[in-house]
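REQUEST
  id: r-88c1
  op: predict_structure
  target: Thioredoxin
  payload:
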Amino acid sequence: MATTAITSQNHDATVSDGIVLLDFWADWCGPCHMFAPVFEKASETHTDITFGKVDTEAEQELAGSYGIRSIPTLVAYRDGIPLFSQAGALPAEAVEDLITQLRALDMTEIRAEYEKQLAERAAQ
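RESPONSE
  id: r-88c1
  status: 200
  body:
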């Protein structure tokens, strides 16, 4: 198994570095069970990426901090910056496309824009 269980205790350290994909799910969720093999296969193919699973039942506060209203929801980070969030069971091709796009990003520009946004929020 190439995925990591994400909790409120290990979340911040997990998303802080590299490319991280988080799957917000619950055991009772049919679409979550349909998406799980797609997520698992991608985690086995892309061993340089962190694939985390957030059980929304066990981690209600963490899911709430993301504003999760529908599951499964896939969230993507790169270098600690949240870059993508989408609800629904994505097909394998969409996950692969997302990974390709995340790898291709110029993080210098994105980091500067993200820091600017954080500074603006802090000033408000």
